[in-house]
Design goal:
The structure is a single chain. The protein is an alpha+beta fold. It has 5 helices and 16 strands. The protein has a 6-stranded antiparallel beta sheet with strand order 6-5-15-14-11-12, with no helix packed on it. Strands 8-7-9-10-13 form a 5-stranded mixed beta sheet, with no helix packed on it. α1 packs antiparallel against α5 (84-98). The chain is globular.
Length: 255
């Protein structure tokens, strides 16, 4: 029986809307809304839960989700947000905790095209991934000694301009609709993102043409530390923060 509280559902809906940065409204108009997907994800997770398999009394949540869209809308939304699958998977961990369900491994999300789906509709299925025999990996909520948000996190661009980081999602690129616009012809229009994950900014290259380098090493994903030097095109960006190692933050670990 579906029992996610209204607050939890509203939060998930807001997260999905934030993840796609308005893409639902821009791409689908009123035909497909974040509320629809949030509700179906929550229902699929709870409806697919299996009885507890250990001393932990929580039911086991499904961890493999497939979202099918009309091919036209599939192409448009993934072109707009190519990393949406991974972002949604991250938030399914929080959803499982809101529903008091247990995850045996990190969830995965696949967004596929299906010509049988009409525009504005979607199909969602949730299953349990095949478990490795003897595996006991479980995602658990723990307290870790990391600040909930980095203190005074900011970027220093080419040794001059300083940009404070106050949003959980920061985009960098040449296009003027990025959070931080870089006037560099060697930087892609949408080059990279910084995402706040468990109190720490993580850098992601968004399939840029020239690539991204941190401390002179090419990276696709990198957990930022104060003093890291990011190079995008000919632009050098210094990441700095003053995080207090004594504070705590809620995260997840694999046991």
């Amino acid at each position: 029986m579906f029992c996610m509280n209204d607050l939890g559902l509203a939060r998930l809906e807001a997260q999905i809307e934030f993840l796609v940065e308005g893409a639902f409204t821009q791409l689908f108009g009123r035909r497909l809304q974040p509320h629809d997907l949030a509700l179906q994800l929550a229902r699929a997770m709870e409806d697919g839960a299996e009885p507890a398999q250990s001393k932990d009394p929580r039911p086991v949540a499904p961890d493999d989700f497939v979202i099918e869209l009309n091919p036209t809308e599939h192409a448009r939304i993934l072109n707009s947000q190519p990393m949406l699958e991974g972002l949604l998977a991250d938030h399914l961990v929080e959803l499982a905790n809101n529903l008091h369900l247990r995850l045996l491994q990190s969830p995965s999300v696949h967004i596929n095209a299906n010509s049988a789906i009409e525009q504005g509709d979607f199909r969602l299925t949730a299953t349990h991934q095949t478990r490795v025999k003897g595996s006991t990996s479980v995602l658990e909520r723990i307290e870790t000694p990391v600040s909930l948000t980095p203190v005074n996190a900011h970027l220093v661009i080419d040794g001059g301009r300083s940009e404070m980081l106050i949003s959980p999602l920061v985009t960098l690129g040449r296009s003027h609709d990025n959070t931080i616009v870089l006037d560099d012809p060697y930087v892609s229009r949408y080059h990279a993102q910084l995402r706040l994950r468990f109190g720490v900014y993580t850098f992601f290259d968004i399939h840029s043409q020239a690539g991204s380098f941190i401390n002179d090493v090419r990276v696709h994903e990198h957990r930022l530390q104060s003093g890291d030097v990011i190079r995008l095109g000919h632009t050098r960006i210094l990441y700095l923060d003053e995080s207090d190692a004594g504070s705590t933050q809620v995260g997840f670990a694999v046991d």
